[in-house]
Amino acid sequence: MNVTVLLTELQNLDLHSQENDRARADAEKQYADSAAMDAARAVLERATTQLAALEHSLRDLELETGGLSDKLVQVNERLYSGRITNAKELADLNDEEKALQKRKRELEDRALSLMEKIEAAQNDVQTKRAAFEERSTQTNAQRLRAQNQLRQLDASDAELAQQRADLRARLDAPTLRVYDQLRAAKKGRAVAHIKNAACSQCGYAVPAGLISRVKVGSELVLCANCGRVLAP
């Protein structure tokens, strides 16, 4: 078979392999990319932490309010038991009862405000959890697509490797050496077709005599300008 035809086929396989390498890098990046999910998780964790802090504050208030209630019971029991007859002691107990009642109302008001904040925080957590779960689903789907693509690329690369090996076995060592050197130097484009009597890669005009030699295909004919192997 025409050597330039074989080299053209080999170049097509190598270019396909390069495309697979780029696709693989992109698929691996997609598989590893969890930035959006991680950001959604961080937002959810902050909201959950804020909710937990509010709930902790409410428990502290409830404990303090419970202690005040117990103390009020004790003060009222002493105040209205009839056992205390000293006017000053009664006045002091009455003042203490009023102070405890005032403090209890303040705590209850704060507790009510906290409960409203907790309700809003619970709604916020619910919203952010839904957003995180949606983002997780999207990320997992993205990873699954990337994983499937990587499996397809593995199969494609294995097939390409076999085809390349078969083609290279049909070419002699000097021809392969020229091809490999040009491919490394010309960004993967070692072979250039002749279009309208010119090199398709650099546009340099190819003399009719060279075109005839290229069509015969028994030798490597290089572009006088860019040095690539010319193919019909």
Outline the structure in words:
There is one protein chain. This protein has helices at 3-32, 35-79, 87-169, 173-185, 208-216, and strands at 191-195, 198-199, 229-231. The longest helix has 83 residues, at 87-169. The radius of gyration is 41 Å and the shape is rod-shaped. It has a three-stranded mixed sheet. α2 runs antiparallel to α3 (87-169). The model has no long low-confidence stretch (mean pLDDT 94). With 232 residues, the chain is mainly alpha-helical. Helix content is 78%, strand content 4%. The protein has two domains: 1-26 and 172-232, Helix Hairpins, CATH 1.10.287.1490; 33-158, Helix Hairpins, CATH 1.10.287. The chain is built from five helices and three strands; from the N terminus they run ααααββαβ. The relative contact order is 0.15.
Counted beta strands? 3
Q: How large, in whole angstroms, is the Cα Rg?
A: 41 Å
What shape does the CA trace take?
Answer: rod-shaped
Measure the end-to-end span: 13 Å
CATH architecture of the largest domain: Orthogonal Bundle
Overall pLDDT metric: 94
Unreliable sequence segments: none
Largest sheet: 3 strands, mixed
The CATH class of the largest domain, by name, is Mainly Alpha
- Secondary structure class reads mainly alpha
